[in-house]
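S.,

As promised, the heme C run. Input:
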Amino acid sequence: MKTLGLMVCISLVLWGCARKTAPTAAETAAKFSHYSDSEGKTIFMEKCGRCHKYRLPETRTADKWTKVIDKMAPKAKLNDDQKEAVLAFVQQYAKS
Ligand code: HEC
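Predicted complex:
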């Protein structure tokens, strides 16, 4: 019985760590639920959390986003339409 308790304990800890590095789809959706749905939001959620954690729209000014998206669009392999949609999304909620 003691071993079982320990096993449960260890698996909970491991599960906790795994969750930290890879948020579930539900957690990601919750993080983005206060933005209204748009093409740009969908692309952002799909492409912009791959190499680093999401840098959310309100963490940068609109001006800064223009520069950042210019740099990140090729990294995320966005075409011109996708780039424009993502830029519109982040600028809509940008820091003022
Ligand atoms: C292929 C990997 C990759 C993808 C995909 C990617 N990024 Fe990045 N991003 C990086 C790296 C590497 C850095 C840090 C080095 C740098 O600033 O160039 C970075 C830095 C950033 C920064 C900080 C830059 C600053 O000067 O403040 C922001 C904001 C950012 N990325 C947003 C995005 C957004 C938005 C997307 C989706 C369009 C995206 N990233 C997709 C690799 C990526």
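The chain has five helices and no strands. The chain has a mean pLDDT of 88.

- D.
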